[in-house]
Amino acid sequence: MAAFVLFPAVIAFSLYSLDQQGFFQIDNVEIKVQTTESQKNFVAPRLQKLQAKLDSVKGISLWKAPLSQISKSLREEKWIKNFQLSRSWPSTIKLVIEPDTVTLLVLSSASGSETSALLPITKSGRVLERISSDDAPNAIVSYDESLVKNERVREGAINVIKALPEKGRMSSTQISEIGYDKKEGYWIKLLQSETKVNLGEEQFEIKSVRIAQVMEYLESRNLKARVIDANLSKKVLVRLQQNP
Fold this sequence. Notes:
Elements: H1 2-20, E1 28-33, H2 40-54, H3 67-75, E2 80-88, E3 92-99, E4 102-109, E5 116-122, E6 140-142, H4 146-149, H5 151-163, E7 175-181, E8 185-190, E9 196-200, H6 204-220, E10 225-229, E11 237-240
Parallel strand pairs: 1-3, 4-6, 9-10
Antiparallel strand pairs: 2-3, 4-5, 7-8, 8-9, 10-11
Helix pairs in contact: 5-6
Keywords: Cell cycle, Cell division, Cell membrane, Membrane, Transmembrane, Transmembrane helix
Domain Cell division protein FtsQ/DivIB C-terminal: 120-229
Organism: Pseudobdellovibrio exovorus JSS
């Protein structure tokens, strides 16, 4: 029994001795980010600031690393969706981050300035601080400031984007702009043809499928649409471009 009690005590003393000698001093804060190629420009400067902030724990014993305080700070970062924070013995803090994907960029007039600001809106509906065009990710653009000021309108715009298929004529990569009209609801503009598509206020997924079918038909007939109105119960109205 005495040997059994003594053994843990020896281990504890050894660990304490190593700690006093600086063996467990944090010398590395390792951050990994799970993101897509199109979001890297946006994440990079934020990651750089976060790295500098977390490097302040270097030199502290890993035993005393303030993980709860760090976690609280990370939860206050609006661009972070999820994270995993852990100790890695003997001297490393590990952090894995999943950023909240930016799905919208609103071009908004900066307060008190003649210049404009890009305001990122994430998939979860968070409006982030302004960014430069150099840091802008690949996302749909809007000039409609109601997406920033009105939470309901913003959520609807995000629902429109979520309803778009991953591939095809109506995928998010084929959309250049999105906006909202109080009478007609949400609308999008196609990247290549600049066709305006009216989507209304609901059933965005069903309407996206219908519109893709209409676009396929128009292409097969070598016709170009100026406006596609899907804001009807079961029909899609097409206004063709006038021939020059």
